[in-house]
Design goal:
The complex is a heterodimer of chains A (126) and B (160).
Chain A: H1 14-40, H2 47-56, H3 60-88, H4 96-123
Helix pairs in contact in A: 1-3, 3-4
Chain B: H1 33-61, H2 71-78, H3 81-109, H4 113-140, E1 146-147, E2 150-151
Antiparallel strand pairs in B: 1-2
The chains are: A mainly alpha (126), B mainly alpha (160).
Bound molecules: protoporphyrin IX containing FE (HEM) (2 copies).
One protoporphyrin IX containing FE (HEM) sits between chains A (22-23, 26-27, 29-30, 33, 76-77, 80-81, 83-84) and B (41-42, 45, 48-49, 52, 94, 97-98, 101-102, 104-105).
């Protein structure tokens, strides 16, 4: 049976998991964007076609989907800035773990703010 | 009598100050595309933070949020060159950034040359279609269409 290699600095630690998260969120956003440009292009077809499709974005289930999408974008964005800091800032590599905790804290605050505002607008009486 | 020349390590000819070709890591024949792609990911990332956060803020968090989005909302935004260029920059940067990112992922996981090749063909084809379509939509868009002989309402439209 293969045993876990001892004492790796990367595998299974914060650095690896943040990379996994960055990769998954990047792909998710990419596929969303392909669909998003297609649905936006319906403004060239007719006002009705566009309004019908965008209407689909306004139901409660989609509101949750949008919230999830924004959660992914916020993580990818903040962690992306962390990756940039690791690469360009002299002390970046040394503080990469601390920066990941900052990323998660900022993510939590911004995401909570977004979710409260978006969900109350999207689900609130209209 | 000539003095013996002892070549310094990795030098081609003594005194030339050059590294012998066989030790040169990046031969001049190889391009630095990968380095430029690496740099582009970082520069575009910084700009995208501003563009995408602005996009989400204006479209989802201001006023009635998502309920305000309809044809008239888009027309109102794209009647203004500021938002046209905002969206154009966001479209191009996000698509090129995302495409390059997915290219890296294909290189990482697709092991056979043939699958790499075909996955990238599909990727580049999709990117080309989406970027051209998105660009055309922004610039050929008519914010004041006349539907069934009726001018759509919109403060920015000239009276027919
Ligand atoms: C919001 C601003 C964004 C920032 C700051 C950002 C930052 C970054 C950085 C720095 C990388 C390189 C990571 C590395 O080399 O290890 C990266 C990779 C990537 N990004 Fe972004 N990005 C942003 C938006 C986007 C968007 C909108 C998309 C999709 C359209 C996207 C998709 C990707 C993908 C697929 C990768 C490759 C991931 C990998 O190789 O593991 N990113 N991002
Ligand atoms: C659920 C959240 C989102 C909503 C409700 C939304 C809504 C819209 C709307 C109404 C437009 C029309 C023009 C405008 O308002 O500027 C648009 C265009 C656009 N959006 Fe979004 N958007 C969302 C998320 C995103 C994200 C995350 C990205 C980037 C990765 C993005 C990229 C774009 C681009 C590039 C265009 C221009 C499309 C074209 O050229 O045809 N959007 N979006």
């Amino acid at each position: 049976m293969p045993t876990k290699p001892a004492g790796t600095l990367y595998r299974g630690r914060e650095g690896m998991w943040s990379w996994v998260g960055h990769r998954i969120t990047g792909v998710v956003i990419f596929f969303f964007l392909l669909v998003h440009v297609l649905d936006t292009s319906l403004v060239r077809v007719s006002p009705e076609a566009y309004t019908a499709v965008i209407g689909a974005y306004k139901n409660p289930l989609m509101a949750l989907g949008e919230t999830g999408l924004v959660a992914a974008i916020l993580f990818h964005a903040f962690n992306g800035l962390r990756v940039i800091a690791v690469d360009f800032w002299k002390k970046g590599a040394k503080y990469q773990r601390q920066m990941l905790w900052i990323v998660l804290a900022v993510w939590l605050v911004v995401f909570a703010g977004f979710a409260i505002r978006h969900l109350s607008l999207a689900l609130g009486g209209h | 009598m000539t003095a013996t020349n002892i070549q310094s390590p990795r030098s081609g000819q003594s005194g030339s100050g050059k590294i012998a070709p066989k030790y040169q890591r990046s031969g001049s024949s190889r391009s630095n595309f990968e380095m430029l792609a690496w740099l582009f990911m970082r520069l575009s990332g910084v700009v995208l933070v501003v563009l995408i956060f602005g996009h989400l803020f204006v479209n989802l968090l201001v006023g009635e949020g998502i309920h305000a989005i309809d044809f008239g909302f888009v027309a109102g935004k794209w009647a203004d060159p500021f938002w046209q260029f905002w969206d154009l920059a966001m479209l191009w940067l996000a698509m090129l950034h995302g495409t390059n990112g997915v290219r890296t992922i294909i290189n990482d996981y697709a092991e056979k040359d043939a699958s790499r090749f075909w996955l990238k063909v599909v990727l580049y084809a999709a990117t080309t279609v989406i970027v051209i379509l998105g660009t055309l939509v922004i610039f050929t868009f008519n914010p004041c269409p006349v539907v069934d002989g009726v001018q759509l309402p919109g403060g920015f439209c000239p009276k027919p």
